[in-house]
């Protein structure tokens, strides 16, 4: 088995079923000659009685636990049999040879063990076939990550303290800590059908901000949370909780900035193995 694709889904409506089905169909059509297994980790606990049915080749797992982004991905990872594992949202469209392009880069550069395909579908003016880096939403695209199975075992799988937010940030930092190279593959294309973001009125305090103040004592929050530009953190307690978890684990923004500078310098001079100590 060469590639295992783990997809997280929540099949509760015809629209969501159609979106996930399109994702699966485009995946299969994109790699006709690749040995592949598809594992769907389903959040709808009543899926078996829902009337929605995915193709027989799709292994559907319905965990008893409540949804947790990393926990559900780990369930799929541990069930997978592939040499490579792709961790995917269900709102994706896969383009022809997206994984073959990743495999081509990996074979030519065996020390690169983690990848993201490019989401820039119409961008064919790139200079290099791939770009090394750990920058989230530039190199590390949390909606589609591909890694060797051995890498996922080496890092101890994904940290399940992250329910959803900052999961990709945590993955990027974990790669850097373990000195595992990650590449954005410009020649491999996967489209992310992001839901349209709701525009929020930033004039004055939003209702979300007001409600959160009723639940959280702002005086007890670290000072870096209340910095200008972080208002979005006070719109949603889940986002705030994940942000705090991330910085409790890796350090405050100022400390993390300094540690990253040192870690990047060590990587530059081929001393990245010291990052286990720095980070």
Automatic annotation (TrEMBL):
Keywords: Glycosyltransferase, Transferase. It is an enzyme of class 2 (transferase). It comes from the Bacteria. It holds the Pfam family Glycos_transf_2. Residues 4-112 form the Glycosyltransferase 2-like domain. The keyword Phosphoprotein does not apply. GO terms for molecular function: glycosyltransferase activity. InterPro entries: Glyco_trans_2-like (IPR001173), Nucleotide-diphossugar_trans (IPR029044). Its EC number is 2.4.-.-. Belongs to the glycosyltransferase 2 family. This is Glycosyltransferase. It comes from Flavobacterium potami. The lineage of its organism: Bacteria, Pseudomonadati, Bacteroidota, Flavobacteriia, Flavobacteriales.
